[in-house]
Amino acid sequence: MTAPPPGPYQHLAEEFERRLRTLQEAGEFVDPRVAQVERLTAKVAELKERLAQRDEAIAELTTFKELAVSRLSTQYD
Predict the structure, then answer these.
(1) What's the CA dihedral at 47, 52, 54, 57 to 10 degrees?
(2) Would you kindly state where each structural domain of the chain is located, as residue ranges?
(3) What is the mean pLDDT of the chain?
(4) Residue 26: its pLDDT value, please?
(5) pLDDT digit string, tens, across residues 14-57
(6) C-alpha atoms less than 13 angstroms from C-alpha of 9 in its C-beta half-sphere
(7) CA-to-CA distance for 57 and 3, rounded, in angstroms?
(8) DSSP letters spanning 5-25
(9) How far is Cα of residue 39 from the mean position of the Cα atoms in its chain?
(10) Separation CA 63–CA 74 (nearest Å)
(11) CA distance 28 to 67
């Protein structure tokens, strides 16, 4: 590993390097790109589910509106 750059946050860089080495030695190191892809994939699935629920609610409300307008029109005639 390269030495952390000098600066006001050097202690954070050193802590990061230490934790990274510990994870690599334990064999538990997860590539951050893979972790990000998995996290984003889960988020996309969640958003698709929310979108499907919203579309279903809109369809139900549209049907209800059409029925209500039809009944009001029938009553008015």
Answers:
(1) -160
(2) 30-77
(3) 87
(4) 81
(5) 888 898 888 878 877 667 788 889 999 999 999 999 999 999 99
(6) 4
(7) 56
(8) PPSTTHHHHHHHHHHHHHHHH
(9) 7
(10) 16
(11) 59
